[in-house]
């Protein structure tokens, strides 16, 4: 199950973070997302490897979660936290592609201020739809 | 990278994996040394570390090498046992608690900055007590059964010279019954090197006995194995050591006391003893043992044959169940021997030999499934690889292997796993693999919270050291660690970790995390009693608008609790609750510009300025104002400040927003101001903003309270903000003295004990003030600085009963009331009104005595004097205001057009006793009105076809109001030129007399140009020509007509005329109408508050409309008596043609002499040709009677076939008629016989020129009947 998705700006400022759990673990998920930024940073700044796609793959496995990352061309990061232990990369890739499209729609809104939190209700709805569709698989 | 030996792990290994010496001593020995505050072991301890012992060693190989660094570990025999788990735990806890007490004082300081952390050298990042803790942690595992490096290498037997029978004592000491159980159990080899030491206390033992005992010892145990140690040479026991060697080992007692009886010589003796003991006895003994074991093992285990044999033998034991019991291997078993060999070799720094031994044994253990032993060996292998700087990979693999093997053992192996993990982490750290080290720490967290806390904290420091630093993880692990500390009540440690974590999160926007950290650290600070710091941290949480409501409530509740506990008022600069919207800051003050109401303040300054251009003195001509004048009078430093008047309040509008979801009440919101007297330039008195603030922090603004009175007064506002609510707050300060007033900030109280302060200048560039717009050069700070000048008169004005909503056309009588409360008089009042179309000032003070609408009616004495309409209205010179007297001046108001209208009044006045800075002031008033549409009229005037001076008027009225119906009272034409009369009775078409909403009505009137009344030949209308008013309903006979020439109506009409002018071309031939109506009394549900008494609708410049630019009329006699026997009859006629168009018209007149045959009269063709009498056609007479009336003359006496008349004068002519003028054309006809003739047989062809819409056309003549009778 996908428990949390988030959009993080290029200055590591949270633009959107939404958890999909019933429990009150928002703080924990915030921390997990926040920590995984370190890993993204490490991946991106690693001189040895060059990134040739936006999908960053599995960022780090914590005890209960798997964290996946995705980096857009504008250095906006998408982070996905899931409790599924066997996740296929293609699924995650697909998820991020859809998520990216939703994000682009949201920031194309002329009333959206770049670098500010995404408050669009449509975006939230789209995201939860995407998450919902993956939760069933 | 550091040399492995010099790394912290290397040092640790040197210390921890070193030979153990078991110490057995008699109680008297302990007594001797306790004089120094130390036990015997403790006394020796500082001298067991040798940095340069320089002993040559040869172990397995032939190569000699020299040991440089060496350490001995001394233990009392009683301590040689596996430590109790509980005791060990307590000790560890004690270590942490002690460390927590040490850091306690640092907690007050500000948290470290993240940049500092990153730039700090490695060693300073983690607290030093971690090393101590780790050491203690490793020590809890000492004397484990599966390892051999804790096995005692030697035994030191110590007897005091005061003991009875010292030699026997030595024997007794090494009595197997009293030896540690580990030795007796067979885990450790009890046959160890023994060394005998006799202690001689110089203070109370005799030298003779000692030397006797020593010689006896030497003879019994052998010369080499016996030593004498003389101590306590200082008789007084007050030696103080400069660098106390024991201080670092025992901190609890005051360091000065330690070793007080030991002189320098004693210390040297101890040192020499230990050095000798190590180099002469222990190292050679170990060396020998290694050689022995090596030989033995080579014989049994090395070589292919032995290995196969071993393998086969072990296979046979396969079915033996897993056994973790140590008893499986005794010290004498081959496996243990190999292990001992390895450990000894390790301790003698022969890592090659150690490794080969470990490798050999590890397979055995593995085959035996002795996992603990196996893991222990793997661990040692890893360390050996590391310290000998061999393959990194191997080392790591071994550690990993050992670690996971320990973990596999379950709970029992966890402690070992912890130690292994610590070493592993240290190893990784030494190789700069901090990230891996962090994960190693993370893996040894375990379940016990305190332990986990320490490990997590160590892990977090590794993340800082990672290149590049992983600060997010650093923060996260610190937070985790802090939570664990808190769970174990290690509050100060929890605070410490959170403090560091703050530095990570402070600059980020992860508010959820930030709030959590600040909130908890705040609470913990409160727990340890540091309330001020607690409050400081909690303050950062208050802006927690994004949290859930429940969380916000908890935050606030705890915050207020903590604040209450501090027991004092906190003044907080930059309190985020509520949030102050600086961009909403508006300063409203009055200098020479004064405002009657709030609405007038908000009006754009440019509107006022354009309004006041005419009336403010020309001295300050143009755009500049009093500031220029002022600049001559004032020092430059005041030039840029605004001016306000003492006794008049300066208002500041500020928006407060509650960021929370829960409602918050804020008390006593007030401004913080400073008033500096400007009598001299030095700051004389700084006034406090408020007198009731009790904390030290506000002291700087509290100076000068001693004077006991305030030179200004502040308003205080209490308000409650609901969740997320915004409120505009109006704050005022009223200076009572001259000087410089500065508005510094705003303060407010929150829940009684917190005072929020916000300084305005702290956010430069944000404050946009109303007045700042005027003087853009001013900085916001300047905008909040005022020059307070002497109190001046201030005019107050209002207009009574001005409705906000009214109907278009509503005419009212209003009163402008002006008041000057001060004693000094004002004069030279002038007023200017932005919409003269709407408002007209009256002429006299309170001129109207009778009731309002009636006074406009005819019959009242009216002053019809028309004032020259000037845009500025000057009050009479003798008007001067003073004291409580008020001036009531009449105003006529008429809502001219529907829509929303802002009326601006500005009243200029001058002060009589003038202050040097301000000579005049203006009062600005602004009223906003909503004018609803009411009646809409349109007029169409068409020339009357029959009369040149008369016109038909059709008036269309539509009631556009939503709910009210109107009574039409009267229609008047303006001026005396036009007379008006009713064509039909309105009562017939509108019996109800009132026009309902949406209803339309058309009425017809006749108007008549009175100017040329003399040319008319008859008057068919009964009205006298001068009547300009017509009453619409004849029943209302009792009501008089309104007099439209009296002052308000005329004045309004004038402005209406100028407003309704469509083109600049003035046409004189227009009619202006005024329709007067009133609201039908029946309906009162309208939106208009009070029913208007009278409405006047002005319709100006109504032009006579016609498709034909010409109007003409034929004048001449109607009936002629003529004697046809004498001559034919010549009749003189006159054609008057008027050009009603605005262009020059050239007209040609063509008479048509009709020459039709007489047999074809053309009644069917209408009036196109001449008409002759047909005697027998009586029916036709009736037919045409409609047209001609009954004025046909008698039938002609004769019938002739000749044409009845001919145009005998000029029959064709062409002339030009200038616009709007009249030309007369003389005509003549000749009539040959009596009869009735229709003289319509002419044509007028016109051509319009000189105008853009040039056109042309032809008109047929109008019928004109001439009756010629035989005389």
UniProtKB/TrEMBL annotation, chain A:
Under the heading InterPro entries, the entry gives: Longin-like_dom_sf (IPR011012), Sedlin (IPR006722), TRAPPC2L (IPR044760)
User: Matching Pfam families, A to Z?
Assistant: Sedlin_N
Q: Which GO terms describe its biological process?
A: endoplasmic reticulum to Golgi vesicle-mediated transport
Give GO cellular component annotations, separated by semicolons: cytoplasm; nucleus; TRAPP complex
Write out the similarity annotation. Answer: Belongs to the TRAPP small subunits family. Sedlin subfamily.
Protein name as catalogued: Trafficking protein particle complex subunit 2-like protein
From TrEMBL, chain B:
- The segment(s) forming the TPPC8 first Ig-like domain are 605-766
- Tell me the ranges covered by the TPPC8 second Ig-like domain, including all copies: 809-923
Residue spans with biased composition (Polar residues)? 682-703
Pfam families according to UniProt: Ig_TPPC8_1st, Ig_TPPC8_2nd, Ig_TPPC8_C, TRAPPC-Trs85
* InterPro entries attached to this UniProt entry: Ig_TPPC8_1st (IPR058541), Ig_TPPC8_2nd (IPR058538), Ig_TPPC8_C (IPR057651), TPR-like_helical_dom_sf (IPR011990), TRAPP_III_complex_Trs85 (IPR024420)
For this protein, the record's Gene3D superfamilies field holds: Tetratricopeptide repeat domain
Show where the TPPC8 C-terminal Ig-like domain sits: 1112-1244
Q: Looking at the record, which segments are called Disordered?
A: 682-707
Q: One GO term of the cellular component aspect?
A: TRAPPIII protein complex
Question: What's the name of the protein?
Answer: Uncharacterized protein LOC108847882
